Fold this sequence. Notes:
eleven-stranded mixed β-sheet; binds zinc ion; DHBP synthase
Amino acid sequence: MAMPERIQVRLRGIVQGVGFRPFVYNLAQRLNLAGYVLNDSSGLVAEVEGPAPAVEAFLQALGSEHPPLAWIQDRAVTSLPLNGDRGFHIRASVAETGKFALISPDIATCAECLADCTDPGNRRYGYAFTNCTNCGPRYTIIRDIPYDRPHTTMASFAMCVPCRAEYDDPANRRFHAQPNACPACGPALMWDRHPCLSAPALSAGIVEAQRRLAKGEILAIKGLGGFHLACDARNAGAVARLRARKRRSDKPFAVMVRDVEAARALCAVDHAAARALGGPRHAIVILPRRADAGLPEDLAPGNRTLGVMLPYTPLHHLLFSGAAFAALVMTSGNLSEEPIVVDNQDARQRLGGVADWFLVHNRDIYMRADDSVVRMFEGEERVMRRSRGYVPQTLDLGRELPELLACGGELKNVFCLTKGTHAILSQHIGDLENYETLVFFEETLGNLKKLFRVAPRAVAYDLHPGYLSTKYALGLPGLEKIGVQHHHAHIASCMAENGLTGEVIGVAMDGTGYGVDGAIWGGEFLVASYAGFTRRAHLRYVPLAGGDAAVREPWRSALGYAGAAERLAGVGGHIGEQRLRAVQRMIATGTNTVMTSSCGRLFDAVAALIGLRTEVNFEGQAAIELEAIVDESCEERYAFDIGGEELDFRPMMERIVKEEAAPSVVAARFHNTLADAIHEMCLRMRRESGHNRVCLSGGTFQNMRLLGLTARALRASGFELFLHRRVPPNDGGIALGQAAIAAQRMK
Ligand code: ZN
Ligand code: ZN
Ligand code: FE
């Protein structure tokens, strides 16, 4: 007989709320081991006692058979003296101050739960809140750790006898599933103000919702991380009404479709995209729209793409079951740029003017989280907006960091906390331009500090004195303040995501960021490390008149180039001679004029000169439309100059002001030229510095055409190329870079 032994295993990673304790329990039973398992504040602890080979098999299986949503970051094993206990038990969780455990993001409904709620013989038939240890709400309902029911917004629902039995049965899929519920004991739907009985059939609320949606009415639907505003995506009248009521300018609406087949009817969906659509996170995937999709133009004006997602809660699945529609607009339930609404009362007040009806429920959302957005590039998803399904999964930076807070930027704000080796990025907060968004920022910060037990010693901020995030950082008492240049942060973010150290060539192509020379930067070539950067080159400065108006009116960006005024007088009738001359005068005298190297403004200038866009109503609109019209068969390019530290596009712009080619051809040549110029500058920087690693970052690289052309050229020249995948290239990623830089400077 083999010698008995006893060991203790400590696991850290995503090991709570993902079915790990039942897995360990079942494993120990199978191997006839005695001992216990429990959650503590830093993860999971198990002790097992038995014959040495069985203990060895236990350790093997921990790594190879663990539940699908679990992620083991590290594991510590220690030998203990035998204590002769019998049987294996799951013990109560232990909370310790100062420790933290990683929390799972919210996970889309699993196949087994979907089967439960669509099976007429199942007690959860038609039940909109079905979940198990493999799926369901997590981050959005957790108030504190350890992750146990009393610490969630499920605390107010007492489990019925059958639910309790599942919860207590280690062999059950719902063993210790904290949000476990059924129609008899759990949350319930409400149609408008009326509670709906929801079992054992499709709830009256769902049926009524389907009927109203099919008639073209607009619903506010409470989801996982907030409210959606929904209407039939094929109903042009409904879509137009929703856009008008929501005051959503021209921003594209996302669509939820019944299944992958329904997605294929609207968009080109390749294998990788299908995998992204159906994965556990269920983000909005931006896909090429089919010409024969038959959708109203109003859905995504000026776009050749469409944001598509699949149903990710039982409520969504039920909405589509037997419905007349296969695609619903599902846009964030908010007014213009405010945070997404999460509270029932608040929804009636703020969305009352938009929605005709409300489909709500009584499970509270503790933390709001918008839908995440990804694009596909080289067969992989690239995160553009990181929120539900991703947060609060941490990024392991591979080195111990001091505890700090990085406040991020202004647009698409995300902040970052550090703890141990982890970077903890917040969900998408939004544009920090109003009071409501700042409140959301502070609430989320308070929550994440609590969940991860972070006590920051320093705060990193963008150098722009006008950003609310900067003012917030500078107002924090007692912390070391570390200012970080915007584009340095972009490049450091890409480095940190890719685990790079040392110096790299950093190309940051961007809208606008505060420069250290008082100019507005945004087309930057840096030699950068976490410790600092040298600005080797930038797009040639161009005068830009009119402050905020310059972002809303792309034609102003063109006026820094010779001959543009004459051209603009021809393309955009509504700009008007007078306004053109007034802005020209401002530039000539330097009144209300800044110098900028922004790449985003270069896109604006080109879009205006070819008559595509002279005014926009959201940041980046002109660039998106310019990408959308590119003639992909065109390989021609324009000329450019490199003089010293300047990348000079005047030769290109002088051609474009006289250009007679079709806008799609000009757009193609422009993209080709920009990629060429970036490539050429990187070659020069490699010759000077010897560095062969290039990081691409900044909002302009959300443009997949430019990213693809640039990546191809750089790789062909043998550069080692690093791109964003899990962190957005836009300003939603800069907090990570700020944190990596600040950690370096604190040492
Ligand atoms: Zn499930
Ligand atoms: Zn129940
Ligand atoms: Fe930026």
